[in-house]
Design brief:
GO terms for molecular function: isomerase activity. The protein is an alpha/beta fold. It contains ten helices and 13 strands.
């Protein structure tokens, strides 16, 4: 029993060691001893470029209403890698799903988007989600402008081969008019993304979606045309676990953000979030969100989180 790596090609590796074609699996005996059942975890983990923001260093702050092409900004230092290097790094750590923050894209030119898509395909990495990191669909002053700006990212998502595009539902207080306005724009954006073969998703994030009541209202109003990306780290308050349990059964994606302190990863919190997601019926990938200075090397933090999640599946199998 236990966690093993199923080797297709290349050398066998354990967590954190490089093996481009390895697949993380859970191998255990069936209850009646009728051979071995294998639960393949290779499709259950993803990485967001946010987890590598120090390694990338630069950002490109695209904004609604600003047609100027954003200049490269060394927001998090000089960086040690370029975005186009990330798919191969992911594959090297046996993680085969990737999410890109829009502000990490150094170019929107068709030639660059083609090159990046080729890099993901060569690495065997799925581009899970393009995260559109600005805009507000709940502000009556700017919602139309921002919706049009978000719509402009659909072709980028499709060119990159992204399966999903996550947008910000809104930043206004969750009044009925604000929620209704966001629903109106999300409905139209969902039509456009679907026509391009991309799934539109929102996240339990910012003031418009402060709890399960508002999240479920938005999802109900849109009748399945918009999906949910659940996030562990966006509701850090009393009642967090109960509230997450009320939405994670509807989630298609999950930002599994670990909480770190001077002592390292808060495994009690992290494991509880994973277990409540499993209990709610969540079956999608866990996107490893590392946002701490505890590990100087960001990949160490990412793999720390992956090991913790994998241990939950190991425990479940025994």
């Amino acid at each position: 029993m236990g966690i093993e790596l199923w080797q297709q090609e290349g050398s066998l590796s354990i967590f954190g060691l490089i093996s481009v074609q390895s697949r993380l699996c859970l191998d255990y005996l069936s209850p009646k001893g009728m051979g071995s059942l294998v639960v393949d975890l290779s499709d259950r983990f993803a990485v967001s470029t946010w987890s590598l923001h120090r390694a990338l260093g630069a950002t490109y702050p695209y904004k609604p209403g600003d047609r100027a092409y954003p200049a490269r900004q060394s927001t998090y230092g000089k960086g040690t890698i370029e975005l186009i290097d990330v798919p191969q790094q992911c594959a090297g750590y046996s993680i085969f799903r990737l999410e890109i923050c829009s502000f990490h894209l150094p170019s929107l030119l068709p030639s660059y988007l083609r090159d990046f898509r080729k890099a993901t395909e060569e690495a065997g990495v799925k581009l899970q989600t393009l995260l559109v990191e600005d805009g507000d669909l709940s502000n009556p002053q700017t919602a139309q402008r921002d919706a049009e700006w978000m719509a402009g990212w659909i072709d980028v998502a499709a060119a990159l081969g992204a399966g999903n595009m996550r947008v910000i539902a809104g930043k206004a207080q969750p009044t009925n008019p604000a929620l209704t306005l966001a629903e109106t724009h999300l409905r139209r954006l969902a039509e456009l993304t679907a026509a391009a073969g991309v799934r539109l998703v929102v996240e339990n994030w910012f003031d418009l979606l402060p709890g399960p009541v508002e999240v479920n209202r938005i999802l109900d109003a849109l009748h399945g045309t918009v999906g949910l990306n659940g996030d562990f780290g966006n509701w850090e308050r009393a009642g967090k676990y109960e509230d997450l349990a009320k939405i994670m059964g509807r989630a298609e994606l999950c930002h599994a953000k670990g909480r770190y302190s001077a002592a390292g990863l808060d495994k009690e919190d992290y494991v509880r979030c994973i277990k409540l997601s499993n209990s709610a019926g969540y079956q999608g990938p866990f996107t490893l969100i590392y946002d701490s200075a505890y590990h100087q090397d960001e990949w160490s933090g990412i793999l720390d989180e992956r090991d913790c999640i994998a241990s939950v599946f190991e425990e479940k199998s025994t």
